[in-house]
Amino acid sequence: MCGLPISEYTQDRERYREKLxxxxxxxxxxxxxxxRRVKVIIKDAYVxxxxxxxxxxxxxxETATGLRNPSLRQGHIGVIDIGAFTTDIPVIVNGKPxxxxxxxxxxxxxxxxxxxxxxxxxxxxxxxxxxxxxxRLETGELEFPIKGKPANLRPIIDExxxxxxxxxxxxxxxxxxxxxxxxxxxxxxxxxxALKDHLTAxxxxxxxxxxFIQDEDPQMQNALGYWKYAKQKFGG
Length: 236
Known about the structure:
Blueprint: E1 2-4, H1 6-20, E2 22-27, E3 37-42, E4 47-49, H2 52-59, E5 76-82, E6 87-89, E7 91-93, E8 96-97, E9 103-105, H3 109-124, H4 130-139, E10 143-146, E11 149-152, H5 154-178, E12 182-188, H6 192-206, E13 211-212, H7 221-234
Parallel strand pairs: 1-4, 5-12, 12-13
Antiparallel strand pairs: 2-3, 5-6, 5-7, 6-9, 7-8, 10-11
Helix pairs in contact: 2-7, 3-5, 5-6
Domain Actin homologue MreB-like C-terminal: 79-200
Protein name: Actin homologue MreB-like C-terminal domain-containing protein
């Protein structure tokens, strides 16, 4: 069970499915089972539109045996999926993707992290990596010495994240203007947590509301939806 963006789903799903079916040898790299090899046989594969999986996850309970939000079975629902290098904004109507209403941005959170890293490296003459920046964002340690001098990354982070948040909210506002039946937009993906405050600030300027995931990891929403879809289809 896997997914594709709505923009690729209709045209590429069969080709993607056929690529997955077959026999594979997997070698583990983690220390506990390093170099262990297993054979994986995929006899069949199912491809689900990304966004549909998010709505399915929010609709079904944690065991996929009942509904926790039955209202999501009907109506227009939007999803803002902020990935590393793309941001997909699918619109789901009565459980099915609406390709005409769905939009996307050819940038994700990693593009803006790289801009921040580039600014830091050029300003201070260092070689900070994206992963080092992510680590500091996760811990909140944005004021620290660089080459023995105090530095604060908060201003450049706020600047870049606000630019990205403004672009996202502007597109969502445009979608809502043309497809006003959309009830809500769920914010998911790897950039959901990082951009929450900046998206909120832009939302307030436009007097619109987005739905942030509080009870689960927003980055796992599609994956949880795939699991629930598989559980309903195959049981277990």
